């Protein structure tokens, strides 16, 4: 089984992914880090040169490649729901791409790591951490962007998840 973690930026997916990986003895792949390594550019640089649509295309290619490689090496992954062979920490906006939603639904046990807007704002106002969609904004604007993206994405997270934590 492949466990995928979805949720808004700063919800705690990477932290939970590390904990799950250690507890289950399964490798962890953070797709944002994977993309940066594969592309040789930061997420911000990709957004600046390719735009959000270009980034989402790269993100889908990477997710498809990760799943294809893992399933070919561990074919039992799709039937064995008792043993985790991989933990995926997915980027917050990955659910906006229909192809990614399909891959996540077909090949992973999807967990929505949920945090409310106030918690997300508190975490992100301290450090936007190179999150391109949030950079260079004052607190009022930052909160508006978080609320807008959250309300846009939350139904997608909820529809895709088998479990919410």
From TrEMBL:
<comment type="similarity">
    <text>Belongs to the shikimate kinase family.</text>
</comment>
<feature type="binding site">
    <location>
        <position position="153"/>
    </location>
    <ligand>
        <name>substrate</name>
    </ligand>
</feature>
<dbReference type="GO" id="GO:0009073">
    <property type="term" value="P:aromatic amino acid family biosynthetic process"/>
</dbReference>
<dbReference type="GO" id="GO:0005829">
    <property type="term" value="C:cytosol"/>
</dbReference>
<keyword id="KW-0057">Aromatic amino acid biosynthesis</keyword>
<dbReference type="GO" id="GO:0000287">
    <property type="term" value="F:magnesium ion binding"/>
</dbReference>
<feature type="binding site">
    <location>
        <position position="14"/>
    </location>
    <ligand>
        <name>Mg(2+)</name>
    </ligand>
</feature>
<keyword id="KW-0028">Amino-acid biosynthesis</keyword>
<dbReference type="InterPro" id="IPR000623">
    <property type="entry name" value="Shikimate_kinase/TSH1"/>
</dbReference>
<feature type="binding site">
    <location>
        <position position="92"/>
    </location>
    <ligand>
        <name>substrate</name>
    </ligand>
</feature>
<keyword id="KW-0460">Magnesium</keyword>
<feature type="binding site">
    <location>
        <position position="32"/>
    </location>
    <ligand>
        <name>substrate</name>
    </ligand>
</feature>
<comment type="pathway">
    <text>Metabolic intermediate biosynthesis; chorismate biosynthesis; chorismate from D-erythrose 4-phosphate and phosphoenolpyruvate: step 5/7.</text>
</comment>
<keyword id="KW-0547">Nucleotide-binding</keyword>
<protein>
    <recommendedName>
        <fullName>Shikimate kinase</fullName>
        <ecNumber>2.7.1.71</ecNumber>
    </recommendedName>
</protein>
<dbReference type="GO" id="GO:0008652">
    <property type="term" value="P:amino acid biosynthetic process"/>
</dbReference>
<comment type="subunit">
    <text>Monomer.</text>
</comment>
<keyword id="KW-0963">Cytoplasm</keyword>
<feature type="binding site">
    <location>
        <position position="131"/>
    </location>
    <ligand>
        <name>ATP</name>
    </ligand>
</feature>
<keyword id="KW-0418">Kinase</keyword>
<dbReference type="InterPro" id="IPR031322">
    <property type="entry name" value="Shikimate/glucono_kinase"/>
</dbReference>
<keyword id="KW-0067">ATP-binding</keyword>
<keyword id="KW-0479">Metal-binding</keyword>
<dbReference type="Pfam" id="PF01202">
    <property type="entry name" value="SKI"/>
</dbReference>
<dbReference type="GO" id="GO:0004765">
    <property type="term" value="F:shikimate kinase activity"/>
</dbReference>
<dbReference type="InterPro" id="IPR027417">
    <property type="entry name" value="P-loop_NTPase"/>
</dbReference>
<keyword id="KW-0808">Transferase</keyword>
<dbReference type="GO" id="GO:0009423">
    <property type="term" value="P:chorismate biosynthetic process"/>
</dbReference>
<dbReference type="GO" id="GO:0005524">
    <property type="term" value="F:ATP binding"/>
</dbReference>
<comment type="function">
    <text>Catalyzes the specific phosphorylation of the 3-hydroxyl group of shikimic acid using ATP as a cosubstrate.</text>
</comment>
<feature type="binding site">
    <location>
        <position position="56"/>
    </location>
    <ligand>
        <name>substrate</name>
    </ligand>
</feature>
<feature type="binding site">
    <location>
        <begin position="10"/>
        <end position="15"/>
    </location>
    <ligand>
        <name>ATP</name>
    </ligand>
</feature>
């Amino acid at each position: 089984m492949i466990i995928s973690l979805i949720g808004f930026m700063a919800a705690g997916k990477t932290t939970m992914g590390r904990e799950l990986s250690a507890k289950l003895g399964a490798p962890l792949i953070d797709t944002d880090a994977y993309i940066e390594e594969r592309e040789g550019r930061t997420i911000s640089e990709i957004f600046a040169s390719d735009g959000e649509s270009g980034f989402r295309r790269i993100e889908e290619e990477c997710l498809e490649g990760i799943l294809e490689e893992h399933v070919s090496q561990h074919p039992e992954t799709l039937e064995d729901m008792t043993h985790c062979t991989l933990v995926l920490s997915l980027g917050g906006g990955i659910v906006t791409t229909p192809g990614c939603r399909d891959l996540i639904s077909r090949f992973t046990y999807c967990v929505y790591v949920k945090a409310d807007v106030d918690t997300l704002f508190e975490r992100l106002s301290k450090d936007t951490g190179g999150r391109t969609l949030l950079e260079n904004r004052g607190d009022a604007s930052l909160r508006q962007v978080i609320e807008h993206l959250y309300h846009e994405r939350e139904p997608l997270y909820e529809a895709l998840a088998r479990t919410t934590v």
